[in-house]
Amino acid sequence: MSAPENPRRADPLGGDLKGRAVIVRYGEISLKGRNRSQFEQKLQTDLAWFLRAHGHAQAAIEAERGRIYIRGSEDTPDLKMVLGVHSYSPALEIERDYGRLQEAVAAFFPAIRGCRDFRVSCQRIAKDFSPDSMGVERELGTLIEQKTGTPVRLKEPAFELHVEIGHRHIYLFSEKRRGFGGFPAGSSGRLVSLLSGGIDSPVATFLMMKRGVLPVLLHFEVSAGETAKVRRLRDRLQEFAAGSELKLVVIPREELFQGKLAGLYNTRLEPYVCVMCKYLMHKQAVALARDEGALGVITGDNLAQVASQTLKNLYASRAAAELPVYSPLIGFEKNEIIGLAREIGTYEISIAAAAGCTPPRDPKTGVDRQRLLKILRETGLS
Ligand code: ATP
Ligand code: MG
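Above: inputs. Below: predicted complex with magnesium ion.
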C-alpha cells in the first residue's frame, strides 16, 4: 500500500478536537433499495470495528440520511480500508446558524492564504436554510477574499472550501479522500478463492471482497517459501475484512496428484501438467466450497496473459468446476492489475522471490477438453 497519508498534512482543521467530524459517503449502497438499511447497518458495524482496532475507540458513529458521521476521533482514520466507503472528508461541524458559519470559515484562512486562489462550493442537503447555496457561495467568497487577500476563482481553484448544510449541522471541509467503494465485507456471502503467491489472485480476491464476498482461501503448496507469502497475503486481505476471520486452507500440491506428479514429467503427458493441475484445483475448490457453504470459486485468471491461459485451456481446466467460477481480472491489462496490487498493499508481498513449481517443457496451449478428461481417466486422477 502506498505510504499512509499523514492525516494532518492537508487538514486545515489543525489539532482542534472541538467540532471535528468525519463525513463518510457510501455512494452505491444508498442505491440498494430494500436492502439499504441492512447495508447501512453493516457499514456502521464495520466502521465501529475499524475505529476500535485502529486506536479511535473514543469515536462515535451516527447515521443520518445517506451519510455517516464520525465524531470524537483525534485525527482522521484511514477509512480507505473499510469496504463500502466511497469517500470521506475530515470536516468542521457547527450548528446550523449562518452567523456561526461566517465565523467558522476563519479556521480555513491560514490554508487559503497560502493558495493562489479559492472558491466556496455549497451543497444544501436541507433546503430550509437561507441564504441558498449560491448566496452562501457568493457571500462567504467575498468575506474570505476580503480577510485573506486570496482571490476567488470558480474554475479549477487551488483551494475549494466545501460547505454542506445538513438537517442538523453545517459541515466545512476542503478535502475528499477516496475509498474503494463497493459493499461492506461479507455482505454478499462466501466464495472459495484459489490463492497463489502471485500478483493476480490476491487482487481478484480483493475485487470480490469489495463486492461483499467473504472468501475462504485455498492454496496448494508448492514450496514453504511460497506458502509463507500466501500467509502474508492472507494477513493483508484480512485487513479489509472488518474483523471477520479469513480462513486459509493449505493442501500440498502432491496430494492433488496423489503422488503421481513427478511421474508425468518426461512422458508424453508432460505438456498437459498445467491444465491437469488447474482441473484438480477446481475439483478441490468445489469440494471445499460444499463444506464451507460457499457458492462459487474465485481465480486470478487473466485471458492470454501467459501462453497457457487460452480459452481452450480455461474451458478444459474448468471441466470439474460444478460451481460458478468468478475471474474478475479476465479482461484486465497487466498494468491495471499491478496498479491495484500496489494500492491494496499486496504487490510487494507477491513479488518476493520463492521457489515455484517446475514448469513443464513446451506446455500445451490449446488442450482439448475431451482429451484432458481422457488423460485424467487414464492416469486415475479424474
Ligand atoms: P497468479 O498471479 O494469481 O498466480 P497467474 O497469472 O500466475 O496467476 P496461473 O499461475 O496460471 O496464472 O494461475 C491462474 C490461477 O490459478 C491463479 O490466479 C489462482 O487463482 C490459481 N492458482 C494458481 N496456482 C495456485 C496455487 N498454488 N494454489 C491455489 N491456486 C492457484
Ligand atoms: Mg501464478
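The longest strand covers residues 87-95.
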